[in-house]
Every structure is written in structure tokens, then in C-alpha cells.
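From: lab user (bench 3)
To: helpdesk
Subject: output format question, protein + NAP

Hello, I'm new to running complex predictions and I'm not sure whether the block I got back is the full result or only part of it. Here's what I submitted:
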Amino acid sequence: MKTVALPGGERVPALGLGSWRMGESSARTRADEVAAVRRALDLGLALVDTAEMYADGGAERVIGEALEGRREEVFLVSKVYPHNAGRRAAVAACERSLERLRTDRIDLYLLHWRGTVPLAETVEAFERLRAGGKIRHWGVSNFDVEDLDELWALPHGARCAANQVYYSASQRGVEAALVPRQRGRGLPLMAYCPLDEGALARHAGLAAIGRRHGASAAQVAIAWLLTRPDVIVIPKASRAEHLQQNRTAADLELTPADLAEIDRLLPPPKRRGPIKVV
Ligand SMILES: NC(=O)c1ccc[n+]([C@@H]2O[C@H](COP(=O)([O-])OP(=O)(O)OC[C@H]3O[C@@H](n4cnc5c(N)ncnc54)[C@H](OP(=O)(O)O)[C@@H]3O)[C@@H](O)[C@H]2O)c1
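Helpdesk reply: Thanks, we reran it on our side. This is the complete output you should expect:
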């Protein structure tokens, strides 16, 4: 499996599993979701992304159950709500996430998006959590270039280990300014909604490229993101067939002709605009 280096040098898997919309419904669905996360681990998807927001802690609970006895196998990412990102509140929110995740540490803890709490307070809380061993790294999400510049100017701001943003073959707005800025600083980008919440799996052009490789459109969309340096891709999947496909997307080698065709089908915007947020 391809890996990506965090700013401190630790390498993490470039392909993992998202968990938005897990933990929302019945006990039977929940059991299926626990099984799906375990299947992802069996397949070697060794990075799992979640957040306190997802199903109001429900997704973290699903993952906690799935990781029982298998915690060492994954790089675990969770996120704090902006309104919980204060000096003391972030520490309390992290403790609650740890309990739901049934673990003593989160590998990467992200500020889900910018709210009204001053960034300096959040960084202070994250550094306290790191010093106490509750989190190993911290980062941000939905930050554009100006937000990162503000963060990097703060004491310890350069310790930020990743920025998670919307990035997919059809949503390439981040390529105008954010991607080069992050690359220049060696800050990995975690690509969320890599399948446009499932829509890219039905893209006719990507499907045609996939057919040449015996692959699906979704696999092409994931493999395309994996060709980008310093990008970590976190498709969410609960169906066994999807999990299997997504894992093997890492072995799909797109040719220069495939990449040129994707640029033609889904070109990046010519001018910089606001980054897409869901
Ligand atoms: N930081 C943020 O603000 C933020 C925002 C959004 C998302 N995220 C994170 O990023 C993760 C991924 O984004 P997302 O869940 O919104 O969307 P996504 O990963 O782009 O798409 C997920 C959807 O695609 C389907 N799917 C997965 N693999 C497939 C395949 N091989 N073929 C066909 N369909 C497939 C899934 O179906 P099944 O589940 O039925 O298999 C699910 O409906 C989230 O789960 C979350 O962890 C973060």
C-alpha cells in the first residue's frame, strides 16, 4: 500500500476508510457496519476516518466496536466540532471520543472546520492533548490557504499534520492554490468525498476508462487521487463489494493516456474559487 509522510516523517497509508453516515440507524445495520469496518481492516485499509459529529458519536461507537482487539492495526483519525474546540472543551470532547472509540489515543485529531473559537486556543488544547498522549498528531479540515497561513503563524501552528478537504476527480478547485501551498510546506491533504458521495461511481467517462483495465468508475476515481503526491484518500464504503473494489483501486495503474483523458473529461477550474465544503 502506498504511504504518505506526515510532516514529522511518520508514514501513513494513502488509502483508508471514511465513516460518515455510519452509526445512524438500527442495531442490525450497526452490526453490518461493524462487520464492514472489520472487513476493511482485513483487506488492509489501515486508516479509518471518523468524527464526533457523525451520527452524534454513533460512527465512533461503530468503529470502537470494530477495533476491539485490533487497535494496533489502524491509524485512527477523528475530529472535534468547532464549537467544542476551546481550550478546555476540546480536551473534554477528545476524552468523550476516546471513550466511544474504546481506545486510549487518537492518531490524528482534526478541527472539523473553522468556527468562532480563536485558532490559538484550539492549538493550545491540541498541544496539551498531544503532550498527555491522548492524541499523537493534530490537524485541521476545510481550511483554505489563508486559514493555513494564519495557523502556521501561531506558536506551534507548524505542528499541524494534515488538512482534510473535499477533493475528487470532479471537484478539483483545491488544485488552484491549496494543493501547491500544502505541497510546498509538506502538509498532506486528506481527500474527502473522493467519490462525490457515490455519484462518481456512475460517471460514464470514468467507467469507459475503467473498462480498459477491468475496473469500475469508482476504482478509477480513487486510483486517480492516489496518483497525486501527499494525498490520503478516504472513501466511505459499507458494502463488501465496494470495500473490495476500493482496496484494489490502489493496485490500478492509470496510464498517461488515462490521466490525459480524465483532464479532458473533468478539467480543473481555470480560476481559483472557494473550496467546496459539504
Ligand atoms: N472533513 C469533512 O468535513 C468531511 C466531509 C465529508 C466527508 N468526510 C469524510 O470523508 C469520507 C468520505 O466521504 P463521503 O462518505 O461523504 O463520500 P464518498 O466516500 O465520496 O462516497 C461514499 C458513498 O459511495 C459509495 N461507494 C463506496 N465505494 C463504492 C464503489 N466502489 N462503487 C460504488 N459506490 C461506492 C458508498 O456506498 P456504501 O456505503 O453503500 O458502500 C457511499 O454511498 C466520509 O465518510 C468522512 O469520513 C469528511
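A quick orientation on your result: Residues 244 and 254 are 18 Å apart (CA to CA). Let us know if anything else is unclear.
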